[in-house]
Amino acid sequence: MKSLKRYQYEKYAVLCNLAYPRVFKQTRYGFDPNGQRIISNRYGKTVVRILWSKDKEEAVIVIKGSHSLTDWLLTFAMWQRSCKAFGLDYRIHAGFHYILNQESLPAHKKDKLGLTLFERTIKIASELIEDGKRITITGHSSGGAIGCIIADALETAFPKSIKRIVTFGQPAVGGLKFKKNFQLAHKTYRICCDLDIVTFLPPLPLVYWHVGKLLWLYNGRIYENTPTIVRLGRSLVSWIIRPFSYHLMSKYIRNKDFFDER
Hints:
Layout: H1 6-18, E1 36-40, E2 46-51, E3 58-63, H2 69-73, E4 80-82, E5 91-93, H3 94-101, H4 117-130, E6 134-140, H5 142-157, E7 162-168, H6 176-181, E8 188-193, E9 213-218, E10 221-224, H7 228-245, H8 249-254
Parallel strand pairs: 3-6, 6-7, 7-8, 8-9
Antiparallel strand pairs: 1-2, 2-3, 4-5, 9-10
């Protein structure tokens, strides 16, 4: 697995963050004026943005995380559903399955009624792949989770079409069969920041599994592939001792700039 470079991390982090506002000006970030397609959910809200430029090989699929009460409630749907309808031979979290399988309302003049969010995303991405593009998928929270499924389905239909997957604060997606059958672990980077509790979800050890290379941003360092139990242990210790850490002189020295010079 190649390493994820700093500029790549910053690029995908910025795109994930800017995907949440209703309006996204893709030309400010090097994409063509007509280089954006939006995929909406059942309420007409944007979930997926597909971005590209004619003169670049890479097209980027950016996927939002949970941004409504309904989406957050889906987190508790911790049973698993088959992905055979997506052309994949494993089971995933029922909440993520529901997000992918919901109806996608048209958001473009080329869009037609009757497609799911998964089907519309695959359709648009497939056209770009057939035009010679390779696909990078990036997503935050549940967006990262469903991005893995979309990527795996595209890779199944178009081998070597996926360039990389970069997720931020992603929960686990599926069971042991998902972990074994997922084709893109060697191209997947899973970014976890400090004590992000969502990355420990669902809280069912040995029932849900993560895939790809973990990059844990913790205490000013990057740790690679730290076992979940170790991260959880360090997180619990940090939560317990945090109130006492504010007593250290280093904290007082760090805050010296609050005072005016006399």
